[in-house]
Amino acid sequence: MKDLKSADHIQDLQFFGEFGGVNPSICDSSTFTFLQAKTMADVFDGKIEGCYLYSRHWNPSNLYLSKALAQLEGTESALVTASGMAAISSTLLQLCSAGDEIVSSRTIYGGSYALMKNFLPKLGINTKFVDTTDTQQVRKAISKQTRLIYCETMSNPMLEITDIRELTKLAKANNCLLVVDNTFSPLIFSPAEMGADIVIHSLTKFINGMSDCVAGAICGSQEFINSLYDVNSGSAMLLGPVLDSHRSASILKNMKTLHIRMQQHARNALSLAKKLQADGYRIIYPGLDNHPQYTLLKEIAHTKYGAGALMVIDLKEKERANRFMELMQEANIGYLAVSLGSYKTLFSAPGGSTSSEIPEHERMQMGLTDGLVRISIGLDDDIERTYEKISQCLDIVHPKSKNK
């Protein structure tokens, strides 16, 4: 696919600081003044736009970051939230009412799964979980009650890639919306460019990249974003998942290096995946030519940014996987921690952590066994050195001679 220009567009954004600073001033205020009482009343009534009222509604710092995210995803507008889950829940609750159905990918973040499986049914909203890499399964699951199709461009943690182009066709043909979580693959994929209606991010991960905050984003049409912060019926307004202005300012600065970081993440991950696969280990990585969606990746990804930072190694047994992660942390390869997209390598066994909300029998059906280790490769400068250290850890728990 052609190279993406959104990174250049982000660089083009200029928000001057209050006193001429090259970074926009941080608006550290919960509320805003009005010169006339009538103006305040008109803002509440929706008769006037462009005025700041209260930071749960908008503030300048959040607006700057939202504009940058809209540029990143090629949407008309965006809204930032206090977490990725806040972005997901606000979106689904804004779109769905009692009696509506969601058709969702079966391989998604555990929190997203739990929201749809356990919480939304309390509100009369039910979800059918299918393999979204199989268009026929999605088509069969859609009913007259289907309000939206939900998937992750690159799934957590199995790294399956969904063809957004095909889901877009299904959504439009059935008068429903397509919502895509693009957290694992900013810059690599452009879901909105392929027809997705709404794109969600956990900014906590790659977009911020420093493991120092929790934040989320919703990117979509101006009409949809406006509906989210409507003072009478907007889920983002009424549920209050506001992002702190200091965090918005910090994330905006980190976004300026996203294109550089994503390329380095991908180079490192591809190098490690190839070497470890050659050593005889079962590796799941979209950039390897034995990945089920390798050809699809080449068709729909922006090649400049590779195949991402996430890889999975299958060590067959839970105890072996746990020992391997402990050894990697002791060797200062990275941290045994949930989350991903950090400058430092992070690793966890998703079956017992980020995907633990999914029932065991369902995890087994999708191949998410307890021996899998998900590794988010960091920005290491000497990836050959990292490979040697990982190999030493693997030799202790899973000697190559036994890995046949």
TrEMBL record:
- What is an example of a GO molecular function annotated in this UniProt entry? pyridoxal phosphate binding
Q: Which InterPro entries match?
A: Cys/Met-Metab_PyrdxlP-dep_enz (IPR000277), PyrdxlP-dep_Trfase (IPR015424), PyrdxlP-dep_Trfase_major (IPR015421), PyrdxlP-dep_Trfase_small (IPR015422)
User: What residue intervals traverse the membrane?
Assistant: none
Which residues are reported to carry the modification N6-(pyridoxal phosphate)lysine?
Answer: 205
UniProt keyword terms in alphabetical order: Aminotransferase, Pyridoxal phosphate, Transferase
User: Which biological process, per GO, is one annotated for this protein?
Assistant: transsulfuration
Its GO CC terms are: cytoplasm
Name the cofactor(s): pyridoxal 5'-phosphate
Q: Quick check: keyword Magnesium in the entry?
A: no
The family line of this record is:
Belongs to the trans-sulfuration enzymes family.
Protein name (record)? Aminotransferase class I/II-fold pyridoxal phosphate-dependent enzyme
